[in-house]
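Q: What would this chain look like folded?
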Amino acid sequence: MSRPLLILIAGPYRSGTGDDPDLMAKNLAKLEEAAWPIFRRGHVPMIGEWVALPILSSAGATGVTDPLADQVMYPTAQRLLQHCDAVLRLPGASTGADQDVAIARDRGIPVYYDLDEIPQHAA
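A: My prediction, written as structure tokens:
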């Protein structure tokens, strides 16, 4: 491996929350818990919501229940996956994360299900 991988962290964000902002924040925090271990392995972690939520806000949407969210949330992940080298799929039901895995498989990029599966990059 000649360069660090850009790894999309995929898992529940909105799923199972009933759109409760506190529960979505907890889900985002769970996704973010994987960022440091990925970084420590020499790679660049990415979470779709890190990109999609500011885009949604700058478009004037009121949140993930705004009709504009359908034009931003999943499409952002789809666009990100054109640049990502791998996906880390965290546990939990998530239509979006399942879509991320399907796209990754179609592109032939690795899908990891455990942090320990991610190779170390020697800087």
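The two ends are 10 Å apart (CA to CA).
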